[in-house]
Amino acid sequence: xxxxxxxxxxxxxxxxxxxxxxxxxxxxxxxxxxxxxxxxxxxxxxxxxxxxxxxxxxxxxxxxxxxxxxxxxxxxxxxxxxxxxxxxxxxxxxxxxxxxxxxxxxxxxxxxxxxxxxxxxxxxxxxxxxxxxxxxxxxxxxx
Length: 143
Fold this sequence. Notes:
The chain is mainly alpha-helical and 143 residues long. Helix content is 57%, strand content 10%. Strand 1 and strand 2 form a beta hairpin. Helix 1 runs antiparallel to helix 2. It starts with a helix and ends with a helix. The model has no long low-confidence stretch (mean pLDDT 79).
């Protein structure tokens, strides 16, 4: 016969395995993700990966040949920035599908991810799971 505490540990372990699998799936989907953006004048097309790194630049038309160097440079920077923003939005949406319910949402577009906060939130969630089990400090107080 299993004890209630043993059942909670088994449940926690099963949830941990689910989260580990979800993280692996997220990493795999992120690695497969690419985003391509073409400038309005179709002079340049930029492809970025799921992390926003440029993986390809194409010039689908000959329009770039008629552009001044500074104009082409500005168009490249603008298109790369827009492609990265598009990739971040997609990555943020993907991340939201993997976050456990009740866990804070992280805006990757405007805020850097604070992994300490993520871990603190995970620890608070684990604490809530075991709230009925006495903590070490409660056990010491009882003694």
